[in-house]
Specification:
The chain has ten helices and seven strands. The strands form two sheets. Strands 2-3-1-4 form a four-stranded antiparallel β-sheet, with helices on both faces. A three-stranded parallel β-sheet has the order 6-5-7, with no helix packed on it. The longest helix has 29 residues. The chain folds into three domains: about 70 residues, 2-Layer Sandwich (Alpha-Beta Plaits), CATH 3.30.70.240; about 70 residues, no CATH class; about 140 residues, no CATH class. By secondary structure, the chain is of the alpha/beta class.
């Protein structure tokens, strides 16, 4: 955090040519990333430091190389806006960032429990904003509280404290059921649905519900939701729980996928599989392409089939 008593400013004045338009967008995004704020639309400002000077110099060189003009000055405010006014601009910008994080966390609380990947993504964003929160904006407290509540919701689930898996289930007890999970399926739920259709019941039906208001009905089996029959147990994700209880842990291909889904969902560093990023990118791409839960599962299933075949062909994979 910057010492407000010793604050002096660095200001970058720049002009860019009208074309190409993407250059303006690129420079604007760079200014956002380093935390600079506009001062009367004439300059972008940072609190003075060696790091800020290096960032502005690098950005100025990029602007000039793109055909623009850039001037870097050290500034002391003598009239008009005060130092406190400028600090307020920084706090307002960071408060907006923190509000976005808190809002995303609360939306996950409504549909929870959130996955480890979802929480890790918000925590990473909180760290990024914290690095450019030069004066300690008050909004950070709200964002931290929302993320802490996400953690409490996730790990307060009674199954999470279970050190041993629940009893295995006979295959015939899993047939002809309606499988229920939360709306907005992502990594763990998509993989679970694929596993159910491919290895447990090819004719399985799915329902996607509001977890808070759903009342279980006869013939339903719930997965990856609060109080579900198949969900997180100990440090296992729901996909791993299904593998255990459906007697599928000896399948090399499924075991490999279980480690990848665990790392994507729990994000605890337990497994270091090089394929994790690729599977994660595929699933993220599927989710970005449609909001329909069944469509997400269908689109991901072809890729998961291929990953399964790949891992199954590797005798020494585990």
């Amino acid at each position: 955090m910057i010492d407000v008593r010793a604050t002096r400013w660095l200001a970058l004045l720049h002009q860019l040519p009208a074309k190409p338009p993407y250059q303006r967008v690129k420079i604007w995004r760079r200014l956002q990333v380093i935390g600079a704020v506009p001062l009367k639309n004439a300059a972008h400002v940072l609190p003075r430091s060696d790091e800020a000077e290096a960032l502005f110099r690098s950005l100025g060189e990029e602007i000039v190389a793109g055909g623009g003009e850039a001037t870097l000055i050290g500034a002391e405010l003598l009239g008009g806006q005060s130092d406190a006014d400028v600090r307020g601009l920084f706090d307002a910008a960071r408060d907006a960032d923190y509000a976005e994080i808190a809002g995303a966390a609360r939306r996950l609380l409504e549909t929870g429990p959130a996955s480890g990947q979802e929480i890790a993504r918000l925590q990473k964003r909180l760290e990024e904003v914290g690095r450019i929160d030069f004066f300690g904006a008050h909004g950070r407290l709200d964002a931290e509280a929302a993320l802490a509540e996400l953690d409490r919701q996730r790990y307060a689930h009674p199954d999470v404290s279970r050190s041993e898996p629940a009893d295995a289930v006979e295959s015939e007890d899993l047939l002809g059921k309606i499988w229920v999970t939360r709306r907005g399926v992502h990594v763990d739920r998509i993989a679970c649905a694929w596993l159910i259709r491919r290895f447990i019941d090819p004719k399985a039906q799915f329902r996607f519900v509001d977890a808070k208001s759903h009342v279980p009905a006869p013939g339903e089996l719930r997965f990856d939701m609060v109080d579900a029959e198949f969900t997180h147990e100990g440090d296992r994700c729901s996909f791993e729980t299904l593998l255990l209880r459906a007697h599928l842990t000896e399948d090399v291909g499924l075991a490999a996928l279980g480690e990848i889904i665990h790392e994507l969902d729990i994000a605890d560093g337990k497994f270091a599989r090089p394929e994790t990023a690729g599977v994660g990118a595929m699933l993220s791409g599927v989710c970005a392409s449609t909001d329909e839960d069944l469509e997400r599962i269908a689109r991901a299933s072809d890729a998961l089939d291929q990953f399964y075949s790949f891992f199954s062909s590797r005798k020494n994979d585990r």
